[in-house]
């Protein structure tokens, strides 16, 4: 049985005997028996508390050399178990990090390959004199705005678009003498 389980059971029994109410049909013999169990449990709790203080390095003055040596061996054994568990945990974490590193390196290689492919496409189109490189991303269709009802009052909204006329700019750029700068920019 594990020591923690034994301690918990002992404390539970101690609490039941100490704080439990007397049942109506209990005889004096039962009460005496419960009191004896209470005293045993109380002594056991005191031993466990003293042992705990010893493990914490407290109250060591009244221990002899043999008891101190036993305590030292117990603590060494416990420390070895703790270190072993800690080492296992660290090895598992290291293994997980190595797997994650491999995954990230693979992703990095894939992204670098895609970047190199796109760079070579851009470089080739630039060298052949093309001004635009096709973009493979498909645009999401934009919802058409719903027509607004015309107000019947004094102010009415203007029906115009603010921005550049892309077709006119493209036509100017195509007909420019230099081929790169539109006439309006000269």
Automatic annotation (TrEMBL):
**Which Pfam families did the record assign?**
K-box
User: Which keywords accompany this UniProt record?
Assistant: Coiled coil
Please name the InterPro entries in this protein's record: MADS-box/MEF2_TF, TF_Kbox
- Start and end residues of each K-box domain: 31-121
Q: Where is the composition biased (Polar residues)?
A: 118-137
Where are the stretches annotated Disordered? 115-155
Where are the coiled-coil regions? Answer: 68-114
Please identify the protein, giving its name as recorded.
Answer: K-box domain-containing protein
Natural source organism = Hibiscus sabdariffa (roselle)
